[in-house]
Amino acid sequence: MNILGISAYYHDSASCLVRDGKIIAAAQEERFSRIKHDHNFPAQATAYCLKEAGISSEQIDLVAFYDKPWIKFERLMETYLTFAPRGIRSFLLAMPLWLKKKLWMSELIKKGLPGYKGDILFPEHHQSHAASAFFPSPFDQAAILTMDGVGEWATASYGIGVDNKIILQHELHFPHSLGLLYSAFTYYTGFKVNSGEYKMMGLAPYGTPKYMKTILDNLIDLKSDGSFRLNMEYFNYCAGLTMTTQKFHDLFEGPPRQPESEITEKYIDIASSIQKVTEEIILRMARHIRNQTGQNNLCLAGGVALNCVANGLLLKENIFDKIWIQPAAGDAGGAVGAALFGWYHVLENKRLSDSTSNDSQGGSYLGPEWTTDEIEIFCRNNNYPYTRHTEDKTIDKTAEAIADGKIIGWFSGRMEFGPRALGARSILGDARSETMQSDINQKIKFRESFRPFAPSVLEEDVSEYFDLPVASPYMLLTAQVKDKYHEAISIEDQSRTGLDKLNIIRSKIPAVTHVDYSARIQTVSQKDNPRYHALISKF
Asked: CB 3.0–4.6 Å: which of 33, 80, 113, 401 could bond 57 by disulfide?
């Protein structure tokens, strides 16, 4: 039985094909359209999934869309009416897309799948997130926590997964949202909402959380169980075209930072403060969920679950014995969750988890691939210079080039599903290099110099270099570089503040050691990516 999962029309549109409970293919539309966070119907991603499965749209048995558009529209209308007439500009901008597309999702899906005559399933948004977290996990049963901006009404939820069922027990509702709180600060610190959250998280360790009390005293009423209410006088996202109000700006003594302008110490400290508040909320939620569910293991999804710093702290606190995080935790992963929700929860098919494996997502290498012959033909037809090597020589020469300080574009096997480069479409460099971070940031990626890079480390060697007791195949956990690899820092360098800390050499692997000695780790297993494992071993 073939089930197609779809997420679309908000951000990070994606498709996923599940056959008899196994994920056959999954991809985001942006990987084909080259439009970052493409929200359009995932036509090209769907075509790829069908091709990988060897079927046409007529052979799909069930389509599952990742949320309920009519309930989302209800929330939108109720919000606009509550804040009228203040939200009229936002209302007028939103309505054409809703009236022309989003309310007619069944028709749009069938138009995008010529020949499909079957049913269309609409799980709730957080059911899709929960299914994406639990069903691929290695657990027979587990607690589930989902956190994002907003689905229909829910902004966070928790419950349990048992065998082939998802039971969500409690929800936090819009406008009280951890995802939107974090995005409001992303906006205020001068980064783009829905894509700049990573930047603010990377900026946070350069600062001091001196505004944490200001946030907790004024913006949020946080309870011991992790539930909260936001003071909406400070936020504009319900009715306006921005995230924050003048009252917010007055509280932090100035307007939002202009994008691309200098990042002053104030904004760095604000980033540090909201990161700490986020961590505190997640820890409180996790402790409450452990107490309420009695489960030993936890599964995470939703955009907030991509906060690898909070995830690392959650692991370190040992609230749960084990945690598993969906690698495509944002809206793209909703396509996976919707399809698996249909197969297991709705159709009640038996689920067999494997506690000896990391998960059933196979390293998240679920996208398209090309053979060496196809690549050679492409290069030849386009008059691109190339040399074709044997497999062993390719590994040898690449390892030598990295050791010589070269920066490598590594294109190998199936493309990753999710936002992380995991050794299939990756930029590689020597972690020992003192200039590698700045070279890649400034000369290749053309991005902010403070943004950290992740180490890819052999799974069997991770405890040699990092204080991480578990595998981290999806780059979703941070941990500390072990003390024995730290370098001594001069008294003068210790007194530096803000981004002046950037170029201090802190360890023997400086290219992947962040300012607080942390690293966002990818463990590489021979099972999931034997070629990348061989390259790292040779290096």
From this structure: 113
